[in-house]
Amino acid sequence: MPVLRLPKFGKPVKYAYITGRVRAMKTKLIPHEMYQRMLGMEIPEITRYLEETQYKEEIDLMAKDHSGAELVEYATFANLAKTYRKLLRVSIDEPEFLILEYLRRWDIWNIKTILRGKFYGASDEEIMKYLVPAGELDQEFLEGLAKKEKIEEVIQAFDGTDYYEALTQYDGQMLSSVENALDKLYYFRMERAVGGTLSVGGGLLLKYVRKEIDVKNLVTLFRMNKAGIEASVIQENLLPGGKLHEELSRMAGQSYNEFVRGLEGYPFWGAISDVVAEGGSVSRIEARLRAYLVRYAWAISNYHPLSILPVLGYIVSKDTEVSNIRKIVRGKEAGLSAELIEEQVVS
Amino acid sequence: MVVENIVDGGILYGLIAVGAGLATGLAGIGAGVGEQGIGAAVVGVVAEEPGFLGKGLFLMLLPETLIIFGLAVSLILMFAWTPFA
């Protein structure tokens, strides 16, 4: 798969249309206080509320085949893919290139979904419902993959692409190594395609992505350090390319208390300090870090209003919205208490 | 001959006319540069929120006010101010 390079300097005015559009789209996102109200609703009420929002079309379309949490889950995924494809459709030139580069994460998500589905013997239809064709790989190709019988056939379909090398790490027993390799490939590709160019937009994208890698690594460290896993294993699971990579690598394998003390003073500390002090769960810390990342994306986009950053902010906010709705609905279906669900919701 | 032209105002009138042209012309170019970004952003917002059209048009026309300054300078140069009055 050839990797495109940015052709020329980015001019801020190129971003005027797409940033104007995403700022208008941002106003249609579900307000944070609505999550609180959704926690008190039953699933049919949540579905009715979502019908009054941008999810109406998907819910109406899928209501005849699905119901309850399943309906909400599939409809939100379908809407997410539609929204991201729309962003690609309405952008040209540098913004389009950078948005696609970022949205390739959904290619990785889809490949992982198909591999997991095949690994656990899920049906084709089941797998297809969880696909989000928002990246480069289109619906048709992904459906073709989902219909394949074995994992090996899926892997073979990627022969000649960047993904193939990562996928061949599959040993027939565990998917975690392949999944980790795919994540690393995503960030490596982005660095290769976007980094090293003179484009201002590309530099800003990488600035955000480096922060995102740090946050992901931080969550990995919270999970693995808490579980007392060996430093070398943790370091293997850390994604390279983050701004704090060296420092976070050194924290691998530390005792939980020592690790937490070492985090004081970092910019993200303010977002998690109270949860950490209370001894909160890792998923609660993860939700806080995610909220910090969303805030960060919008905060830096204020410094560069005509750049890729407002678009990234919207992409991240939309992704967070969908995952919040899914968490609430799935939590409700499983009979979890409102407090427990609230802890997981990013706001 | 040059001296004669200056005396009867030929070159000076010409330069005033050029200055008046530049004042309006450059102001127009500047407003255009300002409007290209605003126009693109307004079209983007209106595509999502058609109700924003009125406010968007108003924002888009703001840089046009700069041309009025240029035009005022041109009119002053051409009609109100003259060394030969």
UniProtKB/TrEMBL annotation, chain B:
Tree of life domain: Archaea
Keyword Membrane listed: yes
Main localisation: membrane
Annotated ranges, domain V-ATPase proteolipid subunit C-like: 18-77
**Which SUPFAM superfamilies does this UniProt record tie to the protein?**
F1F0 ATP synthase subunit C
| Gene3D superfamilies per UniProt | lithium bound rotor ring of v- atpase
Q: Name one Pfam family in it.
A: ATP-synt_C
Subcellular localization is given as: Membrane
Keywords for this entry? Membrane, Transmembrane, Transmembrane helix
Instruction: State the membrane topology.
Output: Multi-pass membrane protein
For this UniProt entry, which segments traverse the membrane? 12-33, 57-81
UniProt cross-references to CDD domains, sorted A to Z:
ATP-synt_Vo_Ao_c_TtATPase_like
Q: Secretion signal: which residues?
A: none
The answer to keyword Membrane applying to this record is yes
This chain's protein is named ATPase
Native species: Candidatus Methanocrinis alkalitolerans
